[in-house]
Design goal:
It is built from 10 helices and 7 strands. It has about 270 residues and is an alpha+beta fold. A hairpin with a 4-residue loop joins strand 1 and strand 2. Helix 1 runs parallel beside helix 5 and helix 5 runs antiparallel to helix 6.
């Protein structure tokens, strides 16, 4: 990542907001930021002090603009850094989540990556505990159009560059945006007893252009706040660590999710 001292100051400023998001900054939350600055050989203590002083005086809007202007590699590093900060104390609060995703969206950062995944590979755990006699299926996703009609789509792709395009095509748009951690979705995640994952749904990121779409009452109710959501949506799972989108790996969990969502929205959904 090629970053100027001013850009490093912007990163410091936003990182400090994340560190103080839960009002109880801890040493383990500060350490990832310190380690990040150590990756720049030219940043000695004197320069670091100047960077921090500049960051303290910098306007938040200016800081976000500078981070948004980073190259793709730089944005990936910063997304992962910010995720490390809020997860460092193993106490991820709602305030930290909300601020992280707000910064992520404003700066157009990619999802963070787990840097230890290659060094310490672990077998992926399914989102559910399947019965011994139940075989896993090709990961399945539930699409609910704005008429309330549900259809199931499957994909074994894991790379977001491919999977994201598939999800978008299923709901008739160019690019999707993830809706997560609303009160209704959090309640469903708890009810489904998901294993290190949470329930999300995706909507069109930039709308549907000239296409005619209606109010999707299922999405509107699950989003909450009285804000209408238009067009089709697709339900999926997202990992708590790394925020990777996954499908449902067993029919039982897929069916359980459909029943729970349909109950939460008052029976608005129906299958084809």
């Amino acid at each position: 990542m090629n970053a100027t001292a001013e850009t490093l100051a912007a990163i410091y400023r936003v990182a400090k907001h994340l560190i103080f998001a839960d009002d109880t900054p801890k040493d383990e939350e500060i350490q990832p930021l310190y380690d990040f600055f150590q990756t720049f050989p030219a940043v000695d203590q004197e320069l670091l002090n100047k960077i921090m002083a500049t960051g303290e005086e910098m306007d938040d809007t200016r800081a976000l603009i500078l981070i948004k202007g980073l190259d793709d590699d730089g944005k990936q590093q910063i997304s992962t850094l910010f995720a490390k900060i809020i997860c460092a104390d193993n106490e991820l609060t709602d305030k930290e989540k909300e601020l992280f995703f707000k910064v992520k969206d404003l700066c157009e950062l990619p999802d963070p990556v787990d840097e230890n995944s290659e060094e310490e590979p672990e077998a992926e755990e399914p989102a559910e505990e399947p019965a011994e006699e139940e075989e896993e299926i090709i990961p399945a996703f539930m699409v609910a159009n704005f008429y309330g009609i549900v259809s199931i789509h499957q994909s074994d792709h894991e790379d977001w560059n491919t999977l994201g395009g598939e999800l978008a095509s299923w709901i008739g748009c160019d690019r999707v945006e993830v809706v997560r951690f609303t009160p209704a979705l959090n309640a469903l995640t708890e009810k489904l007893r998901l294993n290190e994952r949470h329930l999300v749904f995706m909507v069109a990121r930039n709308g549907y252009g000239d296409k005619t779409v209606g109010d999707n009452m299922t999405a509107t109710l699950l989003y909450g706040g009285g804000y209408p959501i238009y067009g089709n949506i697709v339900f999926a799972l997202e990992t708590d660590s790394g925020y990777e989108i996954e499908g449902f790996r067993t029919k039982s969990l897929l069916n359980e999710m459909f029943e729970a969502v349909n109950e939460a929205v008052g029976g608005l959904l129906r299958t084809e």
